[in-house]
């Protein structure tokens, strides 16, 4: 017989519910003292909590109940708007107070069945596989792994349901399991794919284990602390993770950047661009945002954004390379431009003046006159604000002037670097801007980030000035 603790604050419904559940074959007991959370000494398999009473605290209180030694299942009773919003966050079934008793009984039985799928922790793992509680130590790992390979599939499936779009990243515990030689050969092959760049959804079907065994394996590793499941890339400790993180960040930023934008902003070029420039811009956008490029990454919930974003690129290119279509687009643009957001659709005289000032600024930087360089680059940015090469080199010149004036080097570099990184998110690769950003990263003390941005710059254009020399200074052997 399933034991249920009724943790409701209202005496009337609680007493009535206690009687109805007992008549339905449920061993129910009401305890008003635990309406706001567990006080200990509870052995029930399921707890009924008052979602209307707890409100925004539902998730926190549900977590407290699941942390109890007996790991009870949680069912919430409520009908308020807050209760409906909080129930998914709390990962609990919400039953209306007016529901039939048979509906509540079904929810209780389901919660009791899956109570050991509520969390992935060592004590829950031991209980789920039918083993007694013991400390988490190597001596207990082999028996736990063996039992977990045969666990009821519904437990890992339900536990992983909340993590299906999360990335699985190994911890040092996975290395310990390898060293202890506790994993089978197929498990070792599956573990080799756990690099923090793949979601649970894709891993389950990746092999060499069948999907059911993979689900058990991932659940077991998560419960043993050998895997962490996170909705974003957990850290940037490896090149693949850093690239995936950058791609996700670029996609989000590009989506925001292109709201109410022009075709010139889509390709990041000016209205004066001729056919070769349009084709080159199209190629550069494709290096980062083409579907075949992004297909290499598990982008999880961002995947649906890729095709519409690329279709916009294709449309922009087809219009701008067709003289007649481009003329019609300019007619439309003259009427609609005040309602649009644009960096690139600016007057030809401004483009020309900015380019001239930028060239003078670059020459001054090369000559070591940082004050003149900053002045000229400031003009370029005023004439053409948001142009990545102008803004990044202006930030580098501004950093050098600040340091010459006595400001702390690292503090100045960090501030300028952040501004440039924010500006370039959602753009196509701009090699000269990436070189300037690499210099700022190196000046801030982050040599890894400097190498990373320089690596992207050299991949995009191996001939970019000063990049090869900087790569050697940063110790990049291959670029």
- Overall number of domains: 4
Assigned CATH superfamily of the largest domain: Tetratricopeptide repeat domain
Helix content: 55-70%
Given the C-alpha coordinates, what overall shape results? elongated
Number of helices in the DSSP assignment: 25
Second rung of CATH, namely the architecture of the largest domain: Alpha Horseshoe
Euclidean distance between termini CA atoms = 68 Å
Report the top-level CATH class of the largest domain.
Answer: Mainly Alpha
Structural class: alpha/beta
Major sheet description: 5 strands, parallel
Over all CA atoms, what is the radius of gyration? 30 Å
Strand order of the largest sheet: 2-1-3-4-5
CATH level 3 topology of the largest domain? Serine Threonine Protein Phosphatase 5, Tetratricopeptide repeat
The strand count comes to 7
Rounded mean pLDDT is 93
Q: pLDDT under 50 segments (min length 5)?
A: none
Question: How much strand content do the residues show?
Answer: 5-15%
Architecture blueprint of SSEs:
Elements: E1 3-7, H1 11-23, E2 27-30, E3 46-50, H2 51-54, H3 58-66, E4 73-77, H4 81-90, E5 93-95, H5 101-113, H6 122-128, H7 138-148, H8 154-161, E6 167-170, H9 172-179, H10 185-191, H11 200-204, H12 211-223, E7 227-230, H13 239-257, H14 263-267, H15 275-289, H16 291-294, H17 306-320, H18 323-336, H19 348-367, H20 370-383, H21 388-404, H22 409-424, H23 431-443, H24 447-460, H25 467-473
Parallel strand pairs: 1-2, 1-3, 3-4, 4-5
Antiparallel strand pairs: 6-7
């Amino acid at each position: 017989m399933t034991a249920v603790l009724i943790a409701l604050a209202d005496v009337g419904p609680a007493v009535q519910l206690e009687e109805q559940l007992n008549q339905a074959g449920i061993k129910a007991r009401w305890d008003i003292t635990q309406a706001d959370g567990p006080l200990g000494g509870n052995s029930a398999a399921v707890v009924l909590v008052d979602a209307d009473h707890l409100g925004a605290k539902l998730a926190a209180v549900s977590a407290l109940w699941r942390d109890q030694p007996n790991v009870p299942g949680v069912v919430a009773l409520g009908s308020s708007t807050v209760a409906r919003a909080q129930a998914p966050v709390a990962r609990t079934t919400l039953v209306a107070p007016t529901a039939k008793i048979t509906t509540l009984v079904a929810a209780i039985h389901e919660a009791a069945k899956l109570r050991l799928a509520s969390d992935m922790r060592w004590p829950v793992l031991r209980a789920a596989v039918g083993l007694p509680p013991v400390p988490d130590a190597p001596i207990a790992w082999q028996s736990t792994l063996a039992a977990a390979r045969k666990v009821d599939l519904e437990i890992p499936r339900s536990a992983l349901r909340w993590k299906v779009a999360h990335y699985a990243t190994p911890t040092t515990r996975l290395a310990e399991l390898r060293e202890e030689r506790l994993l089978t050969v197929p498990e070792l092959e599956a573990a080799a794919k756990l690099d923090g760049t793949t979601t649970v959804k894709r891993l389950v079907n990746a092999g060499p284990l069948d999907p059911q065994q993979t689900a058990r394996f991932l659940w077991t590793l998560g419960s043993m602390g050998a895997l962490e499941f996170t909705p974003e890339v957990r850290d940037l400790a490896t090149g693949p993770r850093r690239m995936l993180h950058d791609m996700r960040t670029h996609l989000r930023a590009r989506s925001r950047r292109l709201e109410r934008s022009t075709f010139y902003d889509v390709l990041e070029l000016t209205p004066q661009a001729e056919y070769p420039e349009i084709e080159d811009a199209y190629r550069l956008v494709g290096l980062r945002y083409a579907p075949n490029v992004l297909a290499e990454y598990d982008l999880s919930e961002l995947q649906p954004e890729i095709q519409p974003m690329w279709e916009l690129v294709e449309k922009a290119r087809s219009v701008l390379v067709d003289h007649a279509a481009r003329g019609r687009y300019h007619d439309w643009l003259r009427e609609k431009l005040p309602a649009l957001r644009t960096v690139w659709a600016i007057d030809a005289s401004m483009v020309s003046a900015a380019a001239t000032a930028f060239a003078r600024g670059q020459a001054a930087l090369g000559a070591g006159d940082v004050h003149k360089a900053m002045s000229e680059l400031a003009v370029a940015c005023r004439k053409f604000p948001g142009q990545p090469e102008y803004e990044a080199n202006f930030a580098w010149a501004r950093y050098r002037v600040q340091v010459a004036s006595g400001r702390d080097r690292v503090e100045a570099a960090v501030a300028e670097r952040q501004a440039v990184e924010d500006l370039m998110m959602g753009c196509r690769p701009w090699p000269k801007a990436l070189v300037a950003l690499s210099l700022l990263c190196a000046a801030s003390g982050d040599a890894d980030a400097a190498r990373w941005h320089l690596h992207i710059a050299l991949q995009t254009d191996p001939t970019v000035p000063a990049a090869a020399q900087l790569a050697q200074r940063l110790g990049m052997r291959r670029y």
